[in-house]
Amino acid sequence: MAFTMHSHSGQFCPGHAKDQLEDIILHAIKVGYKTIGLTEHMPRTELSDLYPEELDPSPEETLASLAPRHEAYLAEARRLQQKYASQIHVLIGFEGEWIRPAYGPLIRSLAADPAVDYFVGSIHHARGVPIDLDAPTYADAVRACGGTERALFAAYFDEQFAMLEAVRPRVVGHFDLVRLFSSAPGRSLRRGKGGEEVWARVVRNLECVRRYGGWLECNTSALRKGLAEPYPQREIAEEWVRMGGRFTFADDSHGIAQVATNYRRGLDYLEGLGVKEVWTLERRRAPAAEEGGGGGDEDEAELVERSVSIDEFRASMNLE
Hints:
Elements: E1 2-4, H1 21-30, E2 33-41, H2 59-83, E3 89-95, H3 104-111, E4 118-121, E5 125-126, E6 129-130, H4 135-144, H5 149-167, E7 171-172, H6 195-212, E8 215-219, H7 221-224, H8 234-242, E9 246-250, H9 263-272, E10 277-285, H10 287-292, E11 301-309, H11 310-316
Parallel strand pairs: 1-2, 2-3, 3-4, 4-7, 7-8, 8-9
Antiparallel strand pairs: 5-6, 10-11
């Protein structure tokens, strides 16, 4: 049963992704997905948090459009969830933006919407500066954190820890995204100058996720962006396996062309770690609704965890 728990569309992330949400779902069905988690980016509330492509024609207009766009996304996601229920299991979520602690209450409020099944907890900034936009902005983040990459990594994992404690996301997105524009993205985080301090933060964060029962996504977008391993890199993934932590799986697609990209490589990676299964969510009719023979209202459903073996996952894919 192939799936992704992290995806985006150009319809609701214009300038950042491509394609209409319905077309992406149709393509997901074609490649063999049985479940797709929709996780458009949550709205931001500060002008300083807009990306360059969002500044024209008017930053103020862009900012004002984000909350209504999120509501439109939820409405369309519910429509598509019902329309394609016989072909694919559509989960509705969003990707959290923890730029600073002030976003915590907004994340919790958005997650409380009855339409939302889960959210992805992500960090895309350090000290308020984007870390995955481009190399020059990454350099700005390094300077904002004290001038060294180790200092940036430490700040990133500290901010991630604050997010984990505050909102406890079911899915932790691209755990080590901070390495994307690093001068040595494949370097060990536990060795070298300052490594002990960074690694202690990594372990602390993993232990936090393990305690509250969250999942790390094996995110194959790192491979299409040129990294040698998915997120999280091997030493982090090995530590997570040692702790008994669970993985989910995600392409982090930003349009049709990226759906299921590098999935075979991602599955091989997990198998090399000794991982036998990945986890997703399934919406089931609540017992009371089943006994009553109701009309299938999604609000009467309960969300349950489901394990999918790597073998079953591979068998259901229809990739050329």
